[in-house]
Amino acid sequence: MSGHWHFVTNSRWFHPLLLLLWLIIGLGLRLTNLTAKPPWTDEFSTLVFSLGNSFLPVPLDQAIAPDILLQPLQPQASDTIQDVWTHLSHETNHPPLYFFLAHWWMQLFPTQQGLVSLWGARSLAAIFGAISIPAIYGLGWLTFRSRLIAHIAAAIMAVSPYAIFLAQEARHYTLAILWVIASLACFIIATRHIQNRTPLPITTALAWVVINAFGIATHYFFVLTLGSEALVLLFLGWRQRNFISPPWRRIYAVAAGTAVSGIVWLPIFLENNYGDKLTDWIQQPRQGFEWLNPFFQAFAAWVTMLFLLPIESPQLAIILISGLVMLIFFIWFLPILIRGIKVQLQQPETQVIWGIILAAIALFFVFTYFLGIDLTRGARYNFVYFPAVILLLGASLAVRWQTQHNNYKITGQQALAIIWLMGFCSAVTVICNLGYQKYYRPDLFLQLIRQTSQVPAVIATTQITHVQIGEMMGVAREWKIQNQPSPSLQFILAHQDQDPNKSTNTLNNILKTLPKPFDLWLVNFHAPIAAETEKCIAETKSLPAVNGYEYKIYHCE
Fold first, then answer.
1. Which of 27, 43, 311, 316 has the fewest Cβ atoms within 10 Å of its own Cβ atom?
2. Residues in Cβ contact with 389 at an 8 Å cutoff, skipping those fewer than 6 apart
3. What is the pLDDT of residues 245-288, one digit of tens each?
4. What are the two backbone dihedrals, phi and then psi, of residue 370, each rounded to the nearest 5 degrees?
């Protein structure tokens, strides 16, 4: 380790205080503007099921008021953990651990106009996200026995735009990241015992099984982390030409215990046909150049683990400047990264971390191209190997920190300061909703309705799963929170099955019963237009697009 690093690290309090600084920065960023962005459909799923409520009581095929639509967001004193599990297991495709924790956590916060606290729901994910900072520090120290690498990894985790994106949503990904870090810690210990041909401690083996069980109980895609670990372990055994040395017996026991902890969920997962419709969006067929999309989607996710400027700003000039700065930064940063990885790959620890990343990426593309499930479409799914990427970045950048060659115009410390400040600006980009924007913007959509409709508004959509209910809940929640009752709103959730005309006929019959005048907003309405709408006047003025809400307007006088 360089003298520059030793100069400031003699005090025994230095490392704990520096880690505390990263934690404070990371937690502060994650809690900033926490409720500024409206919840989207996946978050509504967390809110409703964590309360112990259900989407099923929401009336379909009739006009309903916003308060009726929002009833699943109202906490009920009688709801229990059993209610959480009952509704979760029948209406969605997620394991329950995070929802149980959220159920207890959200009870600590007062309601907002009778609705569950969004700050309370999101703060749990934010806190788990902040805990990942000292957790990745611990993993860095365990892996490399280098406080420098551990601090760099913690500093990057604190400001990573990807980490903050996940931490500011009421979802389970930040808890899953903690299980990934813990599982990787056991994996690192196991690889050392394989290399030394010594038995794996039974306490480590038992802890590994428990951690893996909790990981699967948090998110089923955690098995991709386990699959990556298994592939690397198999490679290590193949390279040694030995799968029967002392550590392997307990590794087999860990594999068996982990398999049992995963198999218990299999009957529930297979019986839940309802959940199949929820994953249709990642099973879309591809044509032509669309076959290349997964590569670009994956690359975008990798880049934004470290930096992301306001490329989703509403102002074109800011978008162009941000894109140019990101390109220049990437061209400058890439040689630093590559050189650092080349140097660190001489260490076996770096080799296994690199192996985890490559194995996970390979699994993603196997699912995408051979199984027809495009995991690259959801950047959040990269949580399965995100900690390994942060660890590799920490190890690579430590090389630049320690390099003081005269042919560099800036020192290693200055280079890392630039990289970290870029990450900090990227974090601010995310918390200001100028990067990793929400898929749905009900706040903007409601604003458009207020500007356009001077008479009562009727919002109609086709309903297949609770995703569409969540889309409408977003609008209803904004209407209630803003507490501006004009114009009055009604919602129509026209259930859709195999015959799209069913939704059309339902809407047609409901419209006949509504008193005029009203404005009909067909929002994400994937069915033929109802005949009754032909008696209304279609809006001809060009109106702005809104994220998540594709709409047509009819003025029914």
1. 316
2. 302, 305, 357
3. 888 999 999 999 999 999 998 887 776 654 455 555 556 666 67
4. -110, -30
d(C-alpha 54, C-alpha 58), whole Å: 8
β-pairing verdict for 63-64 and 489-495 = antiparallel
Distance between CA atoms of residues 71 and 494, nearest Å:
18
Beta bridge partners, 492, equal 63, 460
Q: What is the DSSP string of 327-376?
A: HHHHHHHHHHHHHHHHHHTTSHHHHHHHHHHHHHHHHHHHHHHTSS--GG
Q: What are phi and psi of 25, to 5 degrees?
A: -60, -45
Helix (H, G, I), strand (E, B) or coil at 274: helix
Q: How far is CA 1 from CA 147, 148, 478, 484, in A?
A: 10, 8, 54, 62
What DSSP character marks residue 467? H
Q: What are the backbone angles phi and psi of residue 250, rounded to the nearest 5°? A: -75, -25
What CA–CA distance (Å, rounded) separates 338 from 334?
6
Distance of CA 219 to the CA centre of its chain: 11
> Which pLDDT belongs to residue 2?
46
User: Who contacts 265 (Cβ-Cβ below 8 Å, separation ≥6)?
Assistant: 95, 216, 217, 220
Task: Give CA angle at 465 (463, 466), nearest 5°.
Answer: 100
Residue 478 corresponds to which tokens in the numbers above?
A: 């904004």
User: For residue range 44-70, what is the model confidence (pLDDT) as tens digits?
Assistant: 999 999 999 999 999 999 999 999 999
Q: 3-class DSSP state for residue 215? A: helix
Name the one residue in this structure whose structure tokens are 């805990």.
131
Question: How many whole angstroms separate alpha carbon 522 and alpha carbon 519?
Answer: 10
List the structure tokens of 42.
């996946």
Rounded to whole angstroms, how far apart are CA atoms 400 and 138? 21
Give CA–CA dist 354/22, Å, rounded: 25
For the stretch 318-364, pLDDT in tens is 999 999 999 999 999 999 999 999 999 999 999 999 999 999 999 99
Angle CA 28–34–39, to nearest 5: 155
Statement: residue 187 has pLDDT above 70: yes
| Contacts of 127 by beta carbon, 8 Å cutoff, 6+ apart | 27, 30
pTM reported for the whole predicted model: 0.94
Q: Which two tokens stand for residue 234?
A: 């198999």
DSSP 221: T
Number of H helices, E strands in the chain: 22, 6
In the DSSP assignment, the letter for residue 549 is B
Q: Would you say how long the chain is, in residues?
A: 557
Q: Token pair for residue 395? A: 């190890």
Strand 551-556 with 63-64, pairing: unpaired
Domain range annotation of the chain: 32-114+440-556, 123-263+297-432
